[in-house]
Amino acid sequence: MIRRQFIGSAALVGIAGVFGFSKQSKEKMLLHHVFFWLKNPESDQDKQQLIAGLKTLAAIPTVRKFHLGLLASTEKREVVDTSWNVSELLFFDNEADQKTYQDHPIHQAFVKNYSHLWEKVRVYDALDI
Question: Is the dihedral of CA 100, 104, 106, 112 positive or negative?
């Protein structure tokens, strides 16, 4: 029983480390979640081109964590938005670092070179609590 409790506790500590949960952290990370709707959602080539462009953003030094996502085939419910095509979730140490990201030449080049692919973009920025 004690072994199972230890393993369970160790697993929770590991998960907390992966997601950045820590009581010791004084900085509140900024989460930048962006959703893209493609002009041609049926085009796998357009989707792959956008994904390739998004991957370039990970090289911006102020990006702490970087995740790309495609729509999951989870249960359809009224509260679930299934209208988007590609998403990115970026983590920054603070708002100033997110601003640096916005102004960075790699981000500016991404917008210039890939904006022709999307019809709509929605950004949700949140601070850790």
Answer: positive
